[in-house]
Amino acid sequence: MAQPDPSVQAEADAKSLQSRKKSLWEILNTPVQDLFKEGQLVVEDGDESDVAFLGLGRDKPVLEGGEKQSWLAHFRERLARTRSQFADSITRLAKGRTKVDEDMLEELEEILLQSDVGVKTTDDVLAHLRAEAKKRRFLPEEVLPTLTEYLEQTLQSEPFRLVEGKLNIFLIVGVNGTGKTTTVGKIAAKLKIGGYRVMMAAGDTFRAAAIDQLAIWGKRVGCSVIQHHEGADAAAVVYDAIQSARAKKIDALLIDTAGRLHNKDHLMEELRKVHRILEREKQDAHVECILVLDATTGQNGLRQAEVFSKSVPLDSLILTKLDGTAKGGVIFGIKRELGIPIKLLGVGETLGDLQEFDPKSFVQALFAQDDSIEVSPTAKVS
What we know:
Structural class: alpha/beta
Helix content: 40-55%
CATH class of the domain at 168-358: Alpha Beta
Number of helices: 16
CATH topology of the domain at 168-358: Rossmann fold
CATH superfamily of the domain at 168-358: P-loop containing nucleotide triphosphate hydrolases
Order of helices and strands: HHEEHHHHHHHEHEHEHEHEHEHEEH
Shape: globular
Oligomer: single chain
């Protein structure tokens, strides 16, 4: 029997790998409506592991070699506006200087504040750099890598995971315009890809459009939506959803809520009522309250979080629209001020652009040069 030509086999393997890579990036950028048909996930032969990369709630395939480089390059592109305002400005600041002095640190302070890092975080950063300068000969070109390492250590994240064998209830809150309803729909789709039984509750009864939007998501990804009429009591919707989810042995119940201005006391009182019903009816369910913040609002997002935390206990954050702002530095201020873990980042319109937050990947995508970006070996990227 003739032995296969090794060169022919190598060429075939290379073509197969190239095709798989192309498939991965096509899938990452595929509109949700093309991933699901009549509520069922559409997966072509050979694409199963790539589609699994879009899922949520379980560990993902770890990217290797060129794939992880390409993914981070894609991530860098999404962060282009923040990168230009923040990282590139710091790089330019160091050029032509021979020492780190107070003039340089004052200019760095201005860059950090303009990027919405926040006063307290900026003070911490400058104190750290001054301490480094006292310990050793500290060169201007060392400022960026030192800053990168420090900021990475300040961030906190937790993977988006479900408690297996229990009903998991996620109450999604935030002000108007943060993208809560769309985010709820995307999380539902990603959990479905992860293999979970999912239900959504249309707790935004102020807007008929929000109820309709969630119904469209439910039909699209094949999960039930509990809804009442416009103007109904949101707490009643939540009550019915919990009972239905428990009866149907649902893994994850995602509760959308009305966008409410954080300075409107009566709206915040309604949110407290919803949370009281949830706590009363949860039994042994795992409950998590997630605040959705719009990154384009910068430091105002911190004020929103402070007010919401007085009405409901905030367990984690989702930061959306990070691709549309030069104020992405707010992510560092959020950790410094609130101490609440960031679980998901929204950096675009597609399902692949709602990603689990990994500090190392985020900081590297923000600061690293093209030839040095890499994914943390332990990072589970989604």
